[in-house]
Design brief:
Helices cover about 75% and strands about 0% of the residues. The chain is mostly helical. α2 (about 40-65) runs parallel beside α4 (about 100-135) and α3 runs antiparallel to α4 (about 100-135). The protein starts with 9 loop residues before the first helix and ends in a 5-residue tail after the last helix.
């Protein structure tokens, strides 16, 4: 099809939002099984911060889509994810995960995977927001 207007194709945004939905389902399932102590206590502040940064990124992306602005920076979420991963590495380095049964450690790995998937899909969302902004301003993406 030939596009005569400057409207962006909504399909990539729709696919990205569906993948984000799946990320949140994965995160919810991982969170359904509480992490054992001391993992839970040590990781909670990092997870809360990552959640706040993710929420901020989504809100700012929604605003950008409505206003035709560019995507928000992803660095704040990336930094919070890096701090979380660093704390997980520290816990593992201290040997706190070695004696845990797989049923107790599995949510930790699921959570890490889901957070990485979320990051990847946030990057796709930023691309979609950028394409929408360019189309709104009449530029070719």
């Amino acid at each position: 099809m030939i596009a005569l207007g400057s409207k962006p194709d909504p399909a990539p945004l729709s696919r990205t939002l569906l993948r984000l939905r799946h990320d949140f389902i994965m995160l919810g399932r991982a969170a359904a099984t509480p992490l054992p102590e001391p993992l839970a206590g040590r990781l909670a502040p990092f997870l809360l911060h990552a959640g706040a940064q993710a929420s901020d990124f989504l809100r700012r992306s929604a605003t950008a889509l409505q206003d035709g602005g560019g995507p928000p920076p992803l660095q704040d979420y990336e930094a919070s994810l890096a701090r979380y991963e660093s704390e997980v590495d520290a816990l593992r380095g201290e040997g706190l995960t070695i004696d845990l049964p797989s049923s107790k450690i599995e949510p930790l790995f699921t959570l890490g995977f889901a957070l990485e998937q979320l990051h990847s899909n946030f990057a796709d969302l930023a691309r979609c927001v950028r394409e929408y902004a360019q189309a709104t301003r009449g530029k070719v993406a």
